[in-house]
Amino acid sequence: MKNRITELFGIRYPVVSGGMVWCSGWRLASAVSNCGGLGLLGAGSMHPDTLREHIRCMKEATDKPWGVNVPLLYPEMEALMGILVEEGVKVVFTSAGSPKKWTPFLKGHGMKVAHVVSSAAFALKCEEAGCDAVVAEGFEAGGHNGREETTTMALIPNVAAQCRLPLIAAGGIASGRAMLAAMVLGADGVQIGTRFAAARESSAHEAFKRKIRETPEGGTMLVLKQLAPARLIKNAFYEEVKAAEERGASAEEMRELVEAGASVLGGCCGTTPDYIRQLCAAFGKGRVPERERRKEGVCYLSSERRTVEFGMDGRFLIVGERINPTGKKLLQAQLREGIFDRVLQFAEEQEHDGALILDVNM
């Protein structure tokens, strides 16, 4: 198949795997690229050294085109951009910010740039900024969403009518029929997230993949509109957020709740058994090195998002950071999702002062 997207990126099929935090590591991205699509690494959950490691793994795993997704709100942007240049990355998808600041820099270093938008107005800004393509993401998307609440079916033909850039549709696309519908509406290709998040090669926790498969129609809801709209599965954390919104919680209260919840859900889901074993080995030789603690899989368990210390005693993961009450409550709820067997102890004193001790299902 040949069209503007396949020719732009040099791929066989106009299918892009979304660069999702905690899910889109080198295994998933390289598998998509090797099958003829465009695999993206999700830089949003990677520290610079981790991203460099995944980029180098990609080079070993595939000789096909691939890219990196970069949320423009990333806190270490200069370091990350430097790595993209140093490692010779050829394709970058940007999101969560204005494309004007970094697009000239990226294109000046020979990279093709696509930017994610939620409206035709923002698509036109991408055209003005010099982007090579645009990803129009509708309200059905599984992660962060636009405030406009425009559905994919309404968004795609509107963007196609106003913007001249090659167009990639995203949001609620998980099948060949949905891909066909998007292309009939004017898209040149599709970006798929959730379906790839559930793939074997995804670095998401198996409990999360299972939850994706089991969640029925109506099992998700868009919330947090006063901060940044996000789609959540209806679980204990969603109920916390919903209750806070219904009682009129302030933006600051909502931010604290989200930071506590995201740290527990994202951190624990990212801590795979293999990674825990690596941490065990490192801890057995003494303090876990800073480089190890900053890799994919590090847990954050405080609203300040300080990096925690790891240690192991047998099969028990010791997280050496005092966990706040909200985080504790949410983590206990996650135990019911099967991520950990049980909380062995919330240590307040004695040997593990302020630590959280988890019985890890390895």
Descriptors:
single chain; 362 residues; alpha/beta; 8-stranded parallel barrel; 4-stranded antiparallel sheet; disordered C terminus
Structure description:
- With 362 residues, the protein is an alpha/beta fold.
- The protein is globular.
- Strands 1-2-3-4-5-6-7-8 form an 8-stranded parallel beta barrel, surrounded by 5 helices. A 4-stranded antiparallel sheet has the order 11-12-14-13. It has a two-stranded antiparallel sheet with strand order 9-10.
- The chain has 15 helices and 14 strands.
- Helix 7 links the parallel strand 6 and strand 7.
What's a quick, concise take on this entry?
The chain is α/β, with parallel strands linked by helices and 362 residues long.
Give the number of DSSP strands: 14
Question: What is the quaternary state of this protein?
Answer: single chain
Low-confidence stretches: 262-324, 338-362
Structural class: alpha/beta
Mean pLDDT: 76
- Tell me what portion of residues adopts beta-strand conformation: 15-25%
Largest beta-sheet details: 8 strands, parallel, barrel
The helical percent reads: 40-55%
Question: What order do the SSEs take from the amino end to the carboxyl end, as H and E?
Answer: HEHEHEHEHEHEHEHEHHEEHHHHEEHEE
Distance between the termini: 44 Å
Based on CA atoms alone, the radius of gyration comes out at 21 Å
Helix count, DSSP H or I runs of 4 or more residues:
15
Shape by Cα distribution: globular
Biggest sheet: strand arrangement: 1-2-3-4-5-6-7-8
